[in-house]
Amino acid sequence: GSKIWITGGGLADVFTVFAKTPVKDEKSGTTKDKVTAFIVERNFGGVSNGPPEKKMGIKCSNTAEVYFDNTHIPVENVLGEVGNGFMVAMQILNNGRFGMGTSLSGTMRSVITKAAEHVTSRAQFGSKLETYGTIQEKLARMSMYHYANESMAYMVSGTMDNGYQDYQLEAAVSKVFSSEAAWFVTDEAIQILGGMGFMRDCGLEKVMRDLRIFRIFEGTNDILRLFIALTGMQYAGAHLKELQKAVNACLKGAWIGKDSVSNVGVLMGEVSKRTKGGLGLGASNHLSEKMHSNLAEPASVLCQDIATFGSSVEKLLMKHGKDIINQQFLLKRIADSAIDIYVTTCVLSRCTSSLEKGLDSAQHEELMTKVWCSEAHLRIIQNLDMLKNPTALSNFSLMAKISEGVCSKVQPVQTNPLGF
């Protein structure tokens, strides 16, 4: 067989290869194909590659198709266990996704520096560019996205350094956010520099071309959004199953026995939580206790957003059940809300640390944090409102029909305005 778009495919002598292998289930006795990871060396024989691909960006990276023709692999070259290749792949992807956040932080820092140098030296209409509101807004947003990305990358690094093994969601969030933040920052820098930014000598066009792949490889951002939403919703689903189990036990009169205490506890806890929510008391403000006093208000708002988010997820699960996996319009909004919540938590944590340490940049960081939290809150509320807003839901249905029309024609459905 063959594998396409392999990084280093024309240069490497050792490959990590994933292939389906028959695995027998000891319990059922049935045999299923499962993914297994192998270490394959070129000198095993039967390994060859095609010419380097011509790409939009990252042209220094050798990308080629790799072919395998009757390649024999020693049994000791199985990586992990037979049939356990998916877990190996996820571990590799997690590390790659996490690394994207850290590397792109450096990219954004250099791009912002280039933009700042331009606006502080370039004068138009009798004033320096830095004095104009449009430029100020661009630089402020670029700086906020960079600060947020750095904060998130540091937080994910800390999670890994502390020995946590389950950080796949954080790694996925890091990959999605950093790749889109870097694209936004670089695009705005080119806009600030104008025609100069469009010229090859400036260097930003190469950064822009190279950045485009980051939203595609290591798992496309579209797929990762579904992964973030569905993986996170599994926890809420497990909670609802436990609640349903308790309700069923109580309806059957199973109040006496070893399960009675736990059943009552689950039900009373749920009743308490939902009663408080109905009275507007559901969002506890645990974050404010851990944040610097200057950040108490945005921390409190974030706690409310988290409570609203949890309630929204539960309502979706109760409405759609297992069919939630097919509700991609809704899942995207859940994922975007989750990303904003996680990144905002990282920003608050970092700014608190800077304020407590009295860093020279602490007051500047506080300004960025307050604006970031305020705008993230608006995005979260908007995304969660779309889950139940009749107009938004209707628009989702209409967009599905628009897409069907284009696909059925395999081109835009309408003719041009002149009728041909």
Produce the secondary structure layout:
Layout: E1 2-7, E2 14-24, E3 31-41, E4 47-49, E5 63-68, E6 78-79, H1 85-121, E7 123-124, E8 127-128, H2 133-161, H3 168-193, H4 195-198, H5 204-211, H6 221-251, H7 260-278, H8 286-290, H9 296-320, H10 328-357, H11 362-386, H12 390-409
Antiparallel strand pairs: 1-5, 2-3, 3-6, 4-5, 7-8
Helix pairs in contact: 1-2, 1-3, 2-3, 2-10, 2-11, 3-5, 3-6, 6-7, 6-9, 6-10, 9-10, 9-11, 10-11
Description:
The strands form three sheets. Strands 1-5-4 form a three-stranded antiparallel beta sheet, with no helix packed on it. Residues 253-272 have low confidence and may be disordered. The chain starts with a strand and ends in an 11-residue tail after the last helix. It contains twelve helices and eight strands. It is mainly α. Helix 2 crosses helix 11.
What's the gist of this structure?
By secondary structure, the chain is mainly α.
What's the tally of helices? 12
What's the helix-strand series? EEEEEEHEEHHHHHHHHHHH
List low-pLDDT spans. Answer: 253-272
Separation, N- and C-terminal Cα atoms: 46 Å
- CA gyration radius, whole angstroms: 26 Å
Spatially, the strands of the biggest sheet line up as 1-5-4
Give helix % range.
55-70%
Count of DSSP E strands?
A: 8
Query: How much β-strand is present in the residues?
Result: 5-15%
The average pLDDT score comes to 89
Biggest sheet architecture: 3 strands, antiparallel
Structural class, please? mainly alpha
Q: Write down the overall geometry.
A: globular
Pick out its properties:
420 residues; three-stranded antiparallel β-sheet; mainly alpha
